[in-house]
Amino acid sequence: MKILNALAVAAAFAAAMPLAARADDDGLDPAKAAAFDNRVFAGPIGDKASACFVRSYDARHLAQHPKQKVSGMKLLVTAENRTSEPTSYAYRIGVQLRNRPGNFDGGSSCGHLLSTDGRDEITFSCDVECGGGGLEIAMAKDNKSAIVRLEVIAVWNRKHPDGEPESLQGGADDKVFRVDRVDTSECAELLNKDGELAQLQQK
Predict the structure, then answer these.
(1) What span, in angstroms and rounded, lies between the C-alpha atoms of 198 and 91?
(2) Nearest CA to 76 among 115, 56, 105, 113?
(3) Is residue 201 part of a domain?
(4) Beta bridge mates, 54
């Protein structure tokens, strides 16, 4: 799919599926945002923090969900504190698609949200460029898994990062994913050679 088509789809999803209110709104309690950070990163952020979540779907699961496009997912969430600046948050995601060979990556910055759809919870909202689409990251009650609610994101074939992106949409069986916490070393492939968060594609 061409990049303009992908962004058009993203914008349409964003208009149809508003996620929540931004964390810098006056209605969000900073203490609750910090408590959510502790849940995501299993402790205080300090200077930097990261959390890795992984899920691989077996043949039985995929047979039960025939419309699910994603066969595997890795999610890396990072936070960094800089002097005199607000904490910055970002995510990188790696997916395998059941009908496409290769590994596909995407990512963007994130911010806290206060849900407005009755869930009454704080989550991360991670937007795509041009203000359309994105995904939302919540935590399971036991903090051992992250819940990814997908609108639409662009992902690039890892072997061809300068090529055209794929538009990954939250379809019938791709709207919500539960990914399990693992050691951050399992998300190493989502980092660059210096061990930093891989540079985001800015198209």
Answers:
(1) 10
(2) 105
(3) no
(4) 74, 180
* Number of domains the chain contains: 1
Residue 130 has pLDDT above 80, yes or no: no
Q: Residue 138: inside a domain, yes or no?
A: yes
Going from the C-alpha of 112 to that of each of 123, 138, 191, the distances in angstroms are 6, 10, 23
Adjacent-strand bridge partners of 123: 113
How many other C-beta atoms can be found within 10 angstroms of the C-beta atom of residue 26? 5
Within a domain: residue 140? yes
Query: Can you tell me the mean pLDDT for 108-136?
Result: 80
Full domain range(s) for residue 186: 3-190
| CA 42-74-80 angle, 5° bins | 45
Q: What is the rounded average pLDDT of the residues 33-62?
A: 95
- Phi, psi angles (nearest 5°) of residue 135: -145, 165
Q: Classify residue 120: in a domain, yes or no.
A: yes
| Structure tokens given for 92 | 């990188």
Residue 15 neighbours by CB under 8 Å, 6+ apart: none
